[in-house]
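#struct-help
A.M.: can someone run this one for me? Single chain, 482 residues.
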Amino acid sequence: MPHDPHATATALLPLVGGPENVVSVAHCVTRLRLGLADRSRVRDAELRALPGVLGVVEDGESYQVVLGPGVVGRVTEEFERLLAAPTAAERPASRGARLREGRRRRDGTPLKTALRRVAGVFVPLIPALIGCGVLAGVAGLLRNAGWLPGLTPALTALSSAFMALIAVFVGHNTAREFGGTPVLGGAVAAVVVYPGVAQVTAFGTPLSPGQGGVLGALAAAFLGTRVERWCRARLPGTADVLLTPTLTVLVSGLATLYALMATAGAVASAIGTAANWLLTTTGALAGLLLGGLFLPLVMLGLHQALIPIHTTLIDQQGHTVLLPLLAMAGAGQVGAAAAVYVRLRHDTSLRTTIRSALPAGLLGVGEPLIYGVSLPLGRPFLTACVGGAAGGAFVGLFAMLGTRTGATAIGPSGWALFPLLAGDGGWAATAAVYGGGLLTGYAVGFAATYFFGLGDVGGVCDSEDHEPRPADRPGPRPASPR
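D.P.: on it. Structure tokens below:
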């Protein structure tokens, strides 16, 4: 987006009701997520028309403004800076009311709260995963080609260092997300990857550095926050300074060594075994289901539950075999949007939306097409899922035949995922399978939408001699409540 992040944030703030209406601010890879005190104060039409805004999503807990990857972080930073500046009209009581409302909204339902907190732990790690994943891919290509042998070890070190210490970052973010001291969370989780744990024997079995991976780090830091909060509620000020950190590290650290590492290690191994079994024995069916159901999962927010699974697979195997299957949902969405563009030749507004959103969709940013095109029209959303299912089945079929496709990082999809691909058959074979899946998703999504996704509306607009009547003219409509 060529627009100034500060100007975008300044324009957004009054359109969502002003500073007093914003009770919480967060962002993911593509969306600015706002908790609002009064939803009715949002000026939707003006906000959607704002340059740089790709779409708007609501999940019952937050008002989400789609800005795109990279842009959203800079706009969020400016938005928070604007909120931090106190206004003359805002009294301390008003600020306190906003904070209480924010806490109330953040509580939500237990499932949504758990998923939001899981996302809060892992989503901030995605930029490092992407950067290190790309470097790992480049190092692998150089190694296989025999080029620049002096540079390859350096790239390997750069790409591997973060993954070697990812448990520490997971612990830090877990403590921050669950109300503990971040550095204590990192300290407790660091024991998972400390080489010296090889000297520790738990129940007759020596421990292995890294055993339990990110799941062990998550559990260790979560336990650490419980211990820390228990201590702070009971120890006087002077003793709190000395004893709370000590007891936090001691109690949760021992529990990690003698229970959590082994348990989390068993769970992580089971996840890896299940993923491999799923693809080698039921790859086509697994791909069909994962590719076809991912868009609905994203709409419901349930896709966040997959983030720790992806991260566990990357930590354990070097790549996640699930992400390329899920990425096929975006391919079906692109194919469906292209079919709408071809069929509805007289709908200038909708075709303009598709033209502006299609490049982002090809690069894996699907929200503009979902919320601006397929979901408002209804049936094209379902045919997009059909395209995603076909692409997923294609990739899954080749996994059954011995060419598994994985990704060394999470976040990107579409054509942006190519630099992050890895698999059993080398990068060229892996890229060929993934590219074939994308083309299958495009083709099936297009065909299903062209022939079945528009019904009578598409038939009316196929005629070059008749302008569709206003009552028949398709256009973005609010999605049905969930």
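A.M.: thanks! Residues 237-300 form the longest helix (64 residues).
D.P.: also worth noting: The beta strands are 22-27, 31-36, 55-58, 63-66, 201-202, 205-206, 405-407, 421-423.
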